Amino acid sequence: MNFRNEHKDIEEIEEERFWEFDPRTVTFFLAALAIIVGIITFLSFYDGLKVKSQEEIATYVNDMNELLIQSKEYSDSVEDSIKNGTASEFTKKDEQEFRILMDTASKLSIPSKWKEHHEAATGLISGRYMFFYHYQQNFRLGEEDIQEKLSELEKLENVEKEMLLSSFDASGISYRESEEGKITFSIKTY
After folding, report:
1. 119 pLDDT band (50/70/90 cuts)?
2. What is the SS3 assignment for 142?
């Protein structure tokens, strides 16, 4: 019978030891848990900032693209008129709208790492405006002058495209260029 009591005492001692915690072990686990929670919180905030930055870039690119398309419509109209030998009637209102395009483009909010693209795009819009303005004001441009202006516009378009692609690269945004030259990009959103 004595043996049974000793066995019972040993079980009680072992059970008590099982529930005893070393304060250093508890501190270690709490510190590790705090570090893990901190890392997860940091990564969540960092990801949120990255998403916000990419959304700002997407807004900028879409807004600037709309302005570039509108300015190209004016310069294409002038080019078609010259090639077809027809006179397009542009009004003062058309000139004012084109000036508003230039002003709007220069005032767009520029994302980080996109200053060079902004300069190239506003330069292209300004070049198109000057082509349009010379035509609208009936400046006498010879065939050689017209070809030179069109060549300058093509160079500005190429510079704008190069700056667009390099800005995507600098911002870490993936993009694809189709055979037709259309550029699509993707950003992370929530």
Report:
1. very high
2. coil
Write out the H or E segment, with its range, that includes residue 176: strand 175-177
Q: Could you read off the pLDDT of 126-155 as tens digits, one per residue? A: 999 998 888 877 766 677 778 888 899 999
Two structure tokens written together for 169 = 């690269």
Domain spans of the chain? 56-185
| CA-CA-CA-CA torsion sign (141, 143, 145, 150) | positive
CA dihedral 109, 177, 72, 131 (to 10 degrees): 90
Phi and psi angles of residue 124, each rounded to the nearest 5 degrees, phi first: -65, -45
Supply angle C-alpha 114, 128, 153, rounded to 5.
Answer: 80
Q: What is the mean pLDDT of the chain?
A: 84
Here the tokens at position 46 are: 């960092």
The pLDDT value recorded for residue 181 is 84
Task: Tell me which H or E stretch contains 185.
Answer: strand 183-185
Structure tokens at 190: 């929530």
What does pTM read for this prediction?
Answer: 0.75
Instruction: Return the CA Rg of the chain.
Output: 33
